[in-house]
Amino acid sequence: MKEKRKTIDQLLSDPSFVRWVEGDLNRREAKRWNRWVQKNEKNRKLAVEAQKRISGFTFKDPSLPDVHSEWEKVHYEVTPGKEKKAGVRKMTAGQNRDLLSMALKAAAVVLVGVFVGFATYMYQEPVSEEEPVALQTLQTDYGEKRTINLSDGSTIILAPKSKIIYRENWLEKAVKQIRLEGEAYFSIAPQEATGQPKFIVNTEDGSASVWGTRFTMDTYGTGTRVVLEEGEVRVLTEETGDRENSATNIQPGQMIRYSKLSESIELKQVNPRVYTSWSTNELFFDNTPLSVLINRIERTYGVEVVVEEQELLQRNLSGSVDFRNLEGLTNAVAEVFEIKIHRSGETLVIKQ
Question: Which domains, from first to last, does the chain contain?
Answer without folding.
Answer: 67-115 (no CATH), 135-273 (2.60.120.1440), 281-351 (3.55.50.30)
